[in-house]
Amino acid sequence: MKKLGKTILLLLLLVAVGGGGFILGHNMETEPVQKASEATDADERIMKNLDLYRKTIKSDYLFSYKPEDLETGIYKGLFWGLKDPYSEYYTPEEYQRLVEDTSGKFAGVGLVITAGEDNLITVVSPIANTPAARAGIKAGDKIIEVDGVTYTGQDLQEATDKMRGDPQTPVELTVQRVIQGKTQTSHARIIREMIKVDTVISKMLPDDIGYLQLTSFDEETATDFEKAWKELEKQGAKRFVLDLRNNPGGLLDTCEDIADLLLGKATIVTTVNNKGQEEKSESDEKHFTEPITVLANGGSASASEILLGALRDNKRAKSIGETTFGKGIVQQIYPLGDNGKDGGFKLTMAEYLTPNGEKIHGKGITPDIVVKAPDNAKGIGPDFLEEDPQLKRAIEEVKGL
Questions:
Q1: pTM for this structure?
Q2: Annotated catalytic residue within 313, 318, 346, 388
Q3: Is 313 a catalytic residue?
Q4: Phi and psi, residue 309, nearest 5°
Q5: Which of 300, 302, 304, 319 is catalytic?
Q6: pLDDT for 283-332, tens place per residue?
Q7: Are residues 378 and 387 in contact, defined by beta-carbon separation less than 8 angstroms?
């Protein structure tokens, strides 16, 4: 299978940044550094103004301040000027937290959040079987306050830090949700826990149907997925339901490996950079051949949408559910210094297309069969089958394949 270079795209599985797709650990030397002699008039003007502002602050500012905070503010402001909620600068402490988040184990409430286009902190999805999921928080909800303090998308990192804490300690979230066109506000008191994500959940259903839920895409997910599939085959599964609902994304390599298990020789995804250069990822001929239906909803983002698009466009699976989140751009993380000891920054540098060439950023993927989930459902999946019309329809459809 052809990979997208040797890069890794991931979505942090925490109350954390963005709705998916990062390349981590890129070498900073891929672009030539501008020589001092090549500085533009704009560069000179910026440096002159910065020198003036800093001297004036040092001379006239009333209150005390730390010079290093001014430096941090300059870097953060540079990325803020892009007006892109997915591009930002990280201090050394923030960068180390970013790296730690990839471990898949953390203390918090169990939300994947992003800075929305409305500059409000938006829930991409609650992580399955976590305090936030049990509290009823859903994809698309807006986190307005944490412990009574108001935060916006610009304060995403601060809000993230506030929602973290020691296990068994409480945090109160003020949540806004649009119901039938009206914005409603509620408060949720949540007890933090150590969050460990089980990325593959499998179960044998009646009528020889195997059920596989993917909660995210981490380093072990493809291996666990293949094992679970084969185990369900041993139990007699002759057709499968793949559940990607509320899956916020993860490692692209893992997504590609799973797509390779399910597709014959086909295109999985195409990425396009700012120069219009395209790079395709393709699967080989060897794959599982049983019929599949796939479930998705508004909490399905990034790598989930890549897998969904690959299965749909290659006519490998019939899709059921609701329109996905719509995260079709990719961020690259650049560490500064040795292993990020001096911080780092994240920059949007590519977008991805489904095999048919469809751009999904900001609009998502609408499944073949649209089935709306009830607002008052206590949960999804086989344990809540009677109140999960999406899963019911997926089972009904796969029986006919």
A1: 0.69
A2: 313
A3: yes
A4: -60, -40
A5: 302
A6: 999 999 999 999 999 999 999 999 999 999 999 999 999 999 999 988 88
A7: yes
